Amino acid sequence: MLLAFSLTIFSGCDESIPGSLSTSELDPVERGKTLYQGLRCINCHGTDGLGKSAFPGAPRIVGRSSSDIRKVVVDPCDNPEIVNNCHPLKMLDLTELQLDDLAEYLASLAGAQLENSGPVPDNVTGHISTIAGNGVSGNQKEPRILARQQYLYWPQNVTLDPQGRVVIADWNNYMIRRIERTGCQEITDSSGQVGMDCPIVSLVGTGGLGDSCSTKANPVLAIDAVMNHPVGVLFDDFIPGQNNIILWGWHQWKIKYIPVDEQGNTGQMYCLFGSVRGATDDNLPAGYEIDGVVGPTRFNLPSSCVYDNAGNFYVSDQGNLRIRVIHSDGDDDNSSVEAFVQSRANNLITTLAGGMLDEFGNFRRTRADFSDSGDGGPVSQCTLNVQSGFDAIPQMRLALDKERNLLYVADSENNRIRVIDLNVNPPRIDTFAGGGADVVANEVPATQAKLLRPADVDVSPDGSGDVLITDSFNHCVRLVSFASRQIHTVAGACGPDNGGYEGDGGPATQARLYEPGGSAMALDGTVYIADTLNHRVRRVNP
Asked: pLDDT of 300-327, one tens digit each?
């Protein structure tokens, strides 16, 4: 996905690069501005590089370094295997000076953004604020930079670690970041309000693109690892005294496992389940490595992973339109991280939901009229509908209510949240929310609400069973009361045309979000939102 999106950064530019534009006597910022306008990047990205793109997929580009620009615009054109799929208009001729000038100009725009990064977070009930990111896409490598000054790039998900710290899947920076609770600084916003801003650190990943799997011969610390679009993490409680990370890697096609010590430091990055991209049959060992050989199980765009009280893992195999389950067995060993990883390698995988084939041998999607969805019946006979190509966006994420043994799935292109009752045999599936006609539904039955490509679902940790829905293409976050099954809006102005950024420091339901990718709820009712296309993480006070 990075290739398809990032290589459109300068879409609409001329094929020829006017050398005189970057060799003038102007300072680097002015040369970069002239180059940006002369290449007609302005056509797609606006006068400030932050506007709503006129070209599908063109990202916000402010804050990108010259090396970032080279990596996504120039270098791919040198690769003979993808030269025809590099930048749509020739960028091979960009010189180092031109790259530096463009980066200087974009950095100047970022500086202007930093002068007004929004109101500082307050504690007013129902208010929304930005706690990480400032609307600029990019990545600043300085250690322990303040979270509201750091650039994020399409953050896809957010969760809390066992200590209550906010953990962010910084998707297009290939990193998992954490907002610290120490080293915070008092800041004053443009209105004179005083608040606190805390440092943000890298928990997993260097920001490099790749796929790290630690082995005895080649141990790799998670902090030194490279990744390819991590969609999210959760913290497990399998090993006594530790809260380790389960990580799902979108374009790594794997589920990974990372030990975390009591201070929050990460250890090695182990590959746990999956191998390479593909689709495989049931009743195969799910482990990454079995007797020194890469295992047979393959995933295609694994977008989330959860586990139940019995130790079974559920994986949303999005690209294959199915939910897989990796079954616990008698030799599971939780005595150490190494034993955990090795003992799970032979655990068998089966399909829980989806996976039926059409007459052409492709995984079958739900019909447009939802008539073959399987609602009300055994989950083995259901169909799902989510994006599945290489350029898909993360959808179909899972959440498990462990108290009630209910598995929720964001059936995104069906515009529904489905629920699978694991208490009955065979498990049954039904619609929990969505499928209705009311876009701005509040305090009505959840099935009367009209969702639009909801990407994520989360269960409240307070035991209520309430369900948080990231209604991505309606640009809002909603909550369904499990007791009443009624829905209401938590943040954003629901509607397909209501994407944007505004509202920090005020009521969350009057704010604007921009295709949020994920959200999570804390025990006290605080809601955290990965406001993906705004390159921010935002908080809604309980």
From this structure: 999 999 999 999 999 999 999 999 999 9
